[in-house]
Design goal:
Elements: E1 5-9, H1 13-24, E2 28-32, H2 36-43, H3 54-63, E3 67-70, H4 73-77, E4 86-89, H5 104-116, E5 121-125, H6 133-144, E6 151-155, H7 165-170, E7 175-178, H8 182-191, E8 199-202, H9 204-235, H10 239-247, H11 268-281, H12 287-300, H13 302-311, E9 318-322, H14 337-347, E10 351-355, H15 360-364, E11 373-374, H16 378-382, E12 387-390, H17 395-398, H18 402-408, E13 413-416, H19 423-428, E14 432-435
Parallel strand pairs: 1-2, 1-4, 2-3, 4-5, 5-6, 7-8, 9-10, 9-12, 10-11, 12-13, 13-14
The structure holds nicotinamide-adenine-dinucleotide.
Length: about 450
């Protein structure tokens, strides 16, 4: 297998997984990050994020000399004897206040690559970006590539999910390559030669749209089942059964049909927002996406609504939040529904206690969560509480000693925002129990 010298710019959830997995496939990879704290951790041979399975691969490839780190694109691309042939852009594309994607980091990387390249270079955009970004990257490279060296820009969107990122990268459902030349396509096919998956080759714009359209579709599926759950609550039906009945139809499929407290994380909310913004900017009002957003906001208010229904006056009451991360198996707190749930309850003068097995250290530093009392374990968290709300379905919450929980709480009320428990079992243990869309 032909191997390449690869530079991955941005060593976050996507960049570090990409760099590590490409090294595992045999390529020589330098991960570049401009955050000095992150770089220090990486150079000390540790990973700065929580991602199951990543550390083992990381250690193996660092020790094999296939994975190293740099603080600038110039340094990362110019390793002696190993000048980068392919540069992956994996920097953040955060939302601006108006919902559009902030692409300034992508532009900065394109400029730095143009100034550092010495031969034909393939720039691969792995960050999630709006359609037409590839054209802008290409224009930027042309502007700063003073010697007129040949280059190609490829769109290679990433579909990994935090928590299962390594497996998702190495065994993806598909690899999408948006290319402008057969030369770039050939390089990219060789980069991914070690991965068994269908490769879809498209033009750059279609590849960019595949990512936004896919994430917005998955977000739509979540909001759809959350809306169905709201109807189930009104009529006393069970959304779990409804979802099962829907999911058995192979045209629908059973994934992403779990109701809950709304979607969060760094991808769905911002990608939905950016896709909606872009469609409008181009002259099409994609109002379905607006409805998906509105349903998601409503879903995040479920805990507040249930607290109101059960506890009458909220001032001075205490709610224990079990879990804070937007989903289990990640420490990522970006756009986690927990942040909105805290805001809504605090606005009503509710005292808050919280426990999360992994994201707590990050959560404690967030200004939005100031005033929340963080607890060392779930039992301490529910102590004296008037309600315990399951916000993240961490598997360890499933095994809680419910007798002990009941003894510790002031009011035995469980608001199961992730449908983690069996309603009959919790009620038999003496709790008032509410779950999403189930009687
Ligand atoms: N997190 C996910 O699950 C996921 C999945 C698929 C796609 N994506 C997309 O991938 C992109 C990256 O997401 P992420 O979650 O890895 O973000 P992240 O914030 O974890 O990582 C981005 C990294 O880029 C670094 N960076 C920013 N500007 C830089 C520059 N000019 N030079 C070098 N480093 C720079 C930051 O310090 C940071 O470490 C986003 O566009 C995101 O939408 C994310």
């Amino acid at each position: 297998m032909e191997t390449f010298n690869v530079c991955v710019v941005g060593a976050g959830y996507v960049g570090l997984v990409t760099g590590t997995c490409l090294a595992e496939l045999g390529h020589h990879v330098v991960c570049v990050d401009s955050d000095p704290k992150k770089l220090k951790v990486l150079r000390a041979k540790r990973i700065p994020i929580y991602e199951p399975g990543l550390d083992k691969l990381f250690q193996r490839n660092v020790h094999a000399g296939r994975l190293s780190f740099a603080g600038t694109v110039e340094e990362g691309m110019g390793r002696p004897g190993r000048r980068a042939q392919v540069v992956f852009i994996a920097v953040g594309t955060p939302p601006r206040a108006d919902g559009s994607a902030d692409l300034s980091a992508v532009e900065a990387v394109a400029e730095a690559v143009a100034k550092s390249m010495r031969d034909y270079t393939v720039l691969v955009d792995k960050s999630t970006v709006p359609v037409e970004t590839g054209e802008w990257v290409s224009k930027t490279v042309a502007r700063f590539n003073r010697k007129g060296l040949p280059y190609d820009v490829v769109s290679n969107p990433e579909f990994l999910a935090e928590g299962t990122a390594v497996n998702d990268f190495l065994k993806p459902d598909r690899v999408v390559l948006g290319v402008t030349s057969p030369r770039a396509e050939a390089v990219m096919r060789k980069i991914y030669a070690g991965i068994k998956a269908p490769i879809l080759v498209t033009d750059v714009k279609s590849a960019e749209l595949i990512k936004h359209a896919s994430n917005s579709f998955l977000a739509t599926k979540i909001s759809y089942i959350n809306a169905v759950a709201a109807v189930c609550e009104k009529v006393g039906a069970d959304v779990t059964l409804v979802a099962r009945g829907m999911g058995l139809d192979h045209r629908i499929g059973n994934q992403f049909l779990r109701p809950g407290l709304g979607f969060g994380g760094f991808c769905f909310p911002k990608d939905l927002e950016a896709f909606y913004w872009l469609s409008r900017q181009k002259g099409y009002d994609f109002h379905l996406l607006k409805a998906v957003k509105d349903i998601n906001e409503f879903s995040k208010s479920w805990v507040l609504r249930k607290v109101e229904e059960n506890l009458w006056n909220l001032e001075g009451k205490t709610v224990a939040l079990l879990g804070l991360a937007f989903k289990p198996n990640t420490d990522d707190m970006r756009f986690a529904p927990a942040v909105d749930i805290v805001r809504m309850l605090r606005n009503r003068q509710v005292s808050l206690r919280a426990f999360d097995p992994v994201s707590q250290a990050i959560a404690q530093r967030m200004p939005e969560l100031k005033g929340v009392r963080f607890c060392p374990d779930p039992y301490d968290c529910v102590k004296g509480a008037d309600a315990a709300a399951v916000v993240t379905e961490w598997p360890q919450f499933r095994d809680l000693d419910l007798k002990k929980v009941k003894r510790l709480m002031r009011v035995p009320l469980i608001l199961d925002g992730r449908n983690l428990y069996d309603p009959a079992a919790v009620r038999a243990a003496g709790f008032t129990y509410c779950s999403v869309g189930r009687p």
